[in-house]
Amino acid sequence: VQLQASGGGLVQAGDSLRLSCKVSGRPLSSDVMGWFRQSPGKERKFVAAITWTGSGIWYADSEETRLTISRDNAKNTVDLQMNSLKPEDTAVYYCGVSTRGYSLEQVWSYDYWGQGTQVTVSS
């Protein structure tokens, strides 16, 4: 299983970015795809998740209004649209696959991870 995250970059506060995660080798219809972020010296934190069927979508508290997670089954990708970016959004963003389908806010729920993509938001 391989996950390839892309779309990060250096942007200004208020800008938007669309991250994409290409998955190969999976997912199965029972899998859940998630996005996490990790700032220097901090733990990896949940951002959003979506079932591969699209039937379930979850966001971290307070993030729902600025984020949209989506998936494209034909392309085997999961995207994270981020709007109104803030300097505190600066982090490495990781995508992961959870075969468990529960405790999706926990890092341990995910079996596979991509390499991460850096998002830097300047003020």
Description:
- The protein has 123 residues and is mostly beta strands.
- Helix content is 0%, strand content 50%.
- Strands 2, 4, 5, 6, 9, 10 and 11 form a 7-stranded mixed beta sheet that branches.
- A hairpin with a 6-residue loop joins strand 4 (32-38) and strand 5 (45-51).
- The radius of gyration is 13 Å and the shape is globular.
- The N and C termini lie far apart (37 Å).
- The relative contact order is 0.32.
End-to-end Cα distance, whole Å, is 37 Å
Main structural class:
mainly beta
* Overall residue-averaged pLDDT value: 93
**Rg on CA atoms, Å:** 13 Å
Describe the global form: globular
How many DSSP helices? 0
Strand content: over 45%
Number of strands: 11
Question: Topology as H/E string?
Answer: EEEEEEEEEEE
Sheet with the most strands?
7 strands, mixed
State the share of residues found in helices, binned by percent: under 10%
Low-confidence stretches: none
